[in-house]
RNA sequence: GGCCCCAUCGUCUAGUGGCCUAGGACACUGGCCUUUCACGCCGGCAACACGGGUUCGAAUCCCGUUGGGGUCACCA
């Protein structure tokens, strides 16, 4: 057996760096998982190395094809491209573990032949009972008691009908490694017992396939969640065995990324909607905005700046700068960052981003008509700088795609109508009806002349009723521009409609 | 409980021994701008967990305490 300290650690430091993203397809993509993907991606791009995308689908119970599709959808939506792996090909495939059975069998055989693996018959219940019987904490785990079972003892157990799992014989020595985000970490001998790598049915476990694939795929830097930190010494022990039997050439470097936390002080739960990437997409986050925010969870680009593009991140990102503290997912800040990106989107492009959200609300058709698109384009400049999420578009622009007769008045909008609102609308109607040049400037001039100068109203009171009449909302795009967009007929009809309603129902 | 990780404003962070009476951002808040809401601008509130060292000097280094988290699966 190789000594613990003698195995070579990778020396990759530039374009020879190979990182990987290897999710298990269970459930919907979690923002913490995406943050891990982002850091791996950024590190590969920054160093000129390669990102390998592998799928760890060895748990038939929980994995699903649907979940696998969602992960692909997520990475593509975000623009996190990989160089090698599922759907991209490469010389180390296949990249789905469910298709690598034969490879594992071969490795298991080598490890067995070299004496690194031994048969273990104890069940979880028996291990716990054994701890109790020996006066130890039941949570202590396996005590390696089957390491030196004799041939006769093993045969006897098998004769009872028991099928053994296979455990790796872990070196009885302290084990240290230099974590890329946390520095030197040492685990004391005995704190990482022999662990199961192959089920009794012969199927390998994550504890085996993850390092084996990393080794076979030449992964040099393993950047993953902090939850895997305590399994690192065992993995390194496995690496030593893999090197000894010629499967691996070196031990990779490890970097353990901090948790993404939720409310309270708990890891953001998969059950929390905020953990669901698609929940944020549905609400109207931009890929660039969400990615920017996620990058801030454990990393910062500069002391006085937190809005940046992915190109800028790639230029600056180094995993050694990642902060080891767990970070709380703050949706308010995420929205603010997203708002910054909304304003940075090219004005020509912005309307296109709105379309899917207006379609989801069934305000425009799919595909969108030329006329609808023209309206969206015209309205875009009015809303671009007042939105934080694309999902606000239906609320803000819905009135442009609603027939006057179908327009609903929001309760909080009606509440803003004070006494005299009816008269104000009548005056507005008169001023507008006489107008020939239907454009923002003249509309504003006419209304100001009538309502402010002539009637002496305060602007808020003068224009509030018309805003409700047009949009049905308390909050809307700028009024005069909205009138121009809506056209004279519809504007007059809406002003009259609300006025009539006030007169008939007392508002 | 054993092992391991973490510890700066409410939140995300900058800070790698003197530039720190601790900087930025979000949130909150006062004001300006203003046809609503935003945007923008100006201002405010607010932190080095605690205790020992080391040092001329510590948020920064060391030790301890406390607190939080993770892990100890034939799940990944």
TrEMBL record:
Record localization: Cytoplasm
Residues reported to bind ATP: 270
Superkingdom assignment: Bacteria
Sequence motif: 'HIGH' region, positions: 23-33
Catalysed reaction, written as an equation: tRNA(Glu) + L-glutamate + ATP = L-glutamyl-tRNA(Glu) + AMP + diphosphate
The protein's role, per its UniProt record: Catalyzes the attachment of glutamate to tRNA(Glu) in a two-step reaction: glutamate is first activated by ATP to form Glu-AMP and then transferred to the acceptor end of tRNA(Glu).
Keyword Cytoplasm found: yes
Gene field: gltX
Protein name (database record): Glutamate--tRNA ligase
Matching Pfam families: Anticodon_2, tRNA-synt_1c
